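A.,

Following up on our hallway conversation. Structure tokens first:
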């Protein structure tokens, strides 16, 4: 299990760096497009579509597992915090399984969309760049998240799962 965790951490690191690189490229492309548009009256052809279809999608979805590991997913705990320990553990398992199920549903649905997109010849309107490969970024992010959640499942019992990480003070 330790080797699987290390392998997942390395894959997650690659995805995070790809997402950060996409955010940097998006920032540079948007700035260059604005400068070119207003200073030279010549916008960069396809800048908006590349940002919209590729860079923004990569920035958001490739960082899902990193966000999960950091405990930054939104949780509302004012009711669960007041439950006795056995019911709190049951509520944690229920929340975890619902979250995992939702992640798997999104993985399957986005994987089907990516499959259809890869078999479609749709291109960006301004450039002859296929849109299909951009659809693969979403299931890739959800796959990394689902694998991390499955590896993290045994930690639910102790309350140490990343989903229940306490970054904010508990409700009074």
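Then the amino acids I'd put at each of the 172 positions:
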């Amino acid at each position: 299990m330790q080797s699987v965790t290390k392998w997942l951490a390395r894959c997650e690191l690659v995805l995070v760096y790809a997402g950060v690189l996409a955010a940097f490229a998006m920032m540079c492309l948007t700035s260059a497009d604005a400068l070119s548009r207003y200073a030279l009256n010549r916008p960069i052809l396809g800048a908006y579509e590349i940002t919209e279809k590729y860079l923004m999608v990569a920035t958001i979805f490739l960082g899902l597992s990193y966000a999960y590991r950091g405990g930054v997913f939104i949780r509302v705990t004012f009711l669960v915090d007041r439950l006795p320990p056995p019911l709190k553990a049951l509520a944690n398992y229920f929340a975890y399984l619902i979250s995992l199920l939702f992640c798997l549903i999104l993985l399957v649905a986005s994987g089907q969309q990516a499959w259809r997109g890869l078999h479609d010849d749709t291109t960006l309107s301004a450039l002859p760049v296929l849109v299909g490969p951009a659809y693969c970024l979403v299931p890739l992010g959800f796959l990394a998240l689902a694998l991390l959640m499955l590896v993290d499942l045994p930690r639910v019992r102790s309350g140490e799962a990343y989903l229940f990480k306490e970054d904010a003070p508990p409700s009074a």
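The helical segments are 2-39, 47-61, 64-69, 85-118, 132-135, 137-152. Curious whether your intuition agrees with the design.

B.
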